[in-house]
Design goal:
The structure is a homodimer of 199-residue chains. With 199 residues, chain A is of the alpha/beta class. Chain A contains 6 helices and 10 strands. Chain A starts with a strand and ends in a 5-residue tail after the last helix. At the A-B interface, helix 2, strand 2, helix 3 and helix 6 of A face helix 2, strand 2, helix 3 and helix 6 of B.
Chain lengths: 199, 199
């Protein structure tokens, strides 16, 4: 199983954003939409072994959306239909327990601390430009339950970094060129597909 | 210089498509929009050393749109604003000579044969799932003027493959998992950034 966690620091927790101007009205939910398609979409299908968590911090109370490849339906490769699926999820009344929106999409109240507690059995890998190079020896044996944690355009706060490192995450870099979160996910999926770490 | 050529077999040559339903009204121009952002967009800027050609075959006469990183302006990472830029380019009266639309974006009549003639000095690399594995020895010395040729969701026709191979292209694969064109471009940019071929 591959898990991707993307933290949207300004991403709205409300369904009241416009599909005609996603970047301008949703706190850059467009970044999270592209991260979802990067994580799941193949030429002819959906990756079943992927799980995505979107941590939305741009509202009064944090919300988290979970997308599970195994049961995910209605996901198309374009940005707008992904945004429409997230809009539906944000319209579901959220409590601290997961509630289903459409097939394979769930929502709850809560942010990074709650999610890190849920992921305590996964091997956490936090992507940051100054981390250890992903090609290094330490990552040649990546296996098991991997959970990659990525920030959005604003980067993580010191408090969030404290939580992530306190949860035991390794800090890893994909290189010196600064990439968008969705592009990082594409590269990670490709590296894991190719088993390049085990070469 | 890195050049990416993406062939859109049903992609419209007319500006009369809807930004509210790009996949359904433009012959899947959404695939080409995502390929453009995959080719150019970094976390904080645009790749200056990239050139993209979109070959649009979904009209009466083929058109090609060129985007040059060096002078490209107004490109945002989201799909809709990219589609709006292409819409503007398609509204420019096209002739066999390049005409500028917005900064860094040009359009002309013509398709793959004309473009391959223009690229005769580049090292052509045609991405196909059953090609030689990109990790192999032959690609460890990739350098100079590289032009990668990618298809859309329909794949290339036999006639197009004949043209491409006749132009001297190497046939290369990114692996056995079938990826969308934009995801292939993300991986190629990352591989070239990382100089992994020269390791």
């Amino acid at each position: 199983m591959r898990t991707f966690v993307i933290v949207g620091h300004k991403a709205t927790t409300s369904p009241n954003f416009s599909l005609e101007d996603i970047p301008g009205t949703s706190g850059r939910l467009d970044i999270l939409c592209r991260s979802v398609t990067a994580a799941f979409v193949l030429s002819h299908g959906i990756r079943k072994d992927v799980c995505v968590y979107l941590v939305l911090l741009g509202g009064e109370a944090a919300k988290t959306i979970q997308l599970k490849g195994e049961t995910l339906r209605h996901l198309n490769p374009d940005e707008r239909t992904t945004a429409a699926l997230l809009k539906k999820a944000l319209a579901v009344p959220a409590t601290p327990q997961w509630a289903m929106s459409t097939s394979g999409i769930f929502v709850r109240l809560g942010g990074l601390p709650e999610l890190l507690a849920d992921l305590k059995d996964a091997r956490l890998i936090y992507l940051r430009e100054d981390g250890a190079n992903i090609g290094g020896q330490a990552f040649r044996e990546l296996d098991g339950e991997l959970a990659f944690i990525l920030g959005d355009h604003t980067g993580m706060t010191t408090e969030e970094e404290g939580l992530i490192e306190g949860a035991g995450a390794q800090v890893v870099s994909l290189g010196t060129t600064s990439l968008h979160a969705d592009h990082c996910i594409v590269v990670l999926n490709w590296l894991l597909d190719a088993n390049i770490f085990k070469a």
